[in-house]
């Protein structure tokens, strides 16, 4: 069964004509692409989070699969992972792009983003696909998270998955005031926080993925086989796109430095060289990677998703695993 049909099966009439059904699926796909595109542009406001949404979504898919989550629920969690930081659109640049650690007042501001994201989604036709991950990905099993201070089994499954993946990516990514941790060190941090910051069962599955080296090809990348590139001044802020070829130009969205893509024609881009120039305002304007988003949606929509034994209804709470 097609994923979009599965997600909306309770909303469609059983005798719906084929043409109408195809139109509904196309509309759902377009709506999802628009949401993902908006999330991508929000991410681009912070030059040090390039590829974050893609990585968290990939980690979440791997974790759900390892935990035995049904493919249907896994797809929903992947979508929620891609959208989880949507609310950062409402965070001032002075906080979001601060080149040093946040103070208490600034942390209070950044902690508003889950509720802001939930409000942005409210009323959207596809809100139920991602609302749990967007609103609750900073909740903790010990009750010390935000925004609601949920505890234990009251935290939605999607939020527990995304919470682990989001924290891991934050630890292994560089910021202006610190370098990213090695994968092994970040995994040690997660292990120490099992049952407190992170769900114990899901966390153990994530640690197993790390021990098997299954996270290494995602960490530090912005797409499959495409590592983040380093600006000479700012660090790993350069996000390359699969369709780019040698000679194409990319820009650091922190300092504006211009770089030329190098490498072998016909292969995914994996190297850059500085030109010594700076980009113009139009060069630095954020734009979603429409082709990556389309691949993400097509992969979800075309996979042979079907109800599996033990699947929860799409709008029902998901049991802990």
Outline the secondary-structure elements:
Layout (H helix, E strand, L loop, with lengths): L2 H5 L10 H27 L7 H15 L4 H13 L9 H4 L7 H7 L2 H9 L5 H10 L20 H16 L10 H10 L7 H12 L9 E3 L2 E2 L1 E3 L3 E4 L10 E3 L5 E6 L8 E8 L2 H4 L5 H13 L19
Antiparallel strand pairs: 1-2, 3-4, 5-6, 6-7
Helix pairs in contact: 2-13, 3-4, 3-9, 3-11, 4-8, 4-9, 7-8, 8-9, 9-10, 10-11
Question: Any key phrases for this structure?
Answer:
321 residues; mainly alpha; Hypothetical protein af1432; 3-stranded antiparallel beta sheet; two-stranded antiparallel ribbon; 7 strands; 9% strand; globular; disordered N terminus; disordered C terminus
Structure description:
The chain is mainly alpha-helical and 321 residues long. It has one domain (3-226, 289-302): Hypothetical protein af1432. It is 45% helix and 9% strand. The chain contains 13 helices and seven strands. The protein has helices at residues 3-7, 18-44, 52-66, 71-83, 93-96, 104-110, 113-121, 127-136, 157-172, 183-192, 200-211, 281-284, 290-302, and strands at residues 221-223, 226-227, 229-231, 235-238, 249-251, 257-262, 271-278. The protein has a three-stranded antiparallel beta sheet with strand order 5-6-7, with no helix packed on it. Strands 1-2 form a two-stranded antiparallel ribbon. Strands 3-4 form a two-stranded antiparallel ribbon. Helix 4 packs across helix 8, helix 7 packs antiparallel against helix 8 and helix 9 crosses helix 10. It is globular, with a radius of gyration of 20 Å. The chain starts with a helix and ends in a 19-residue tail after the last helix. The model is unreliable at 1-23 and 305-321 (pLDDT under 50).
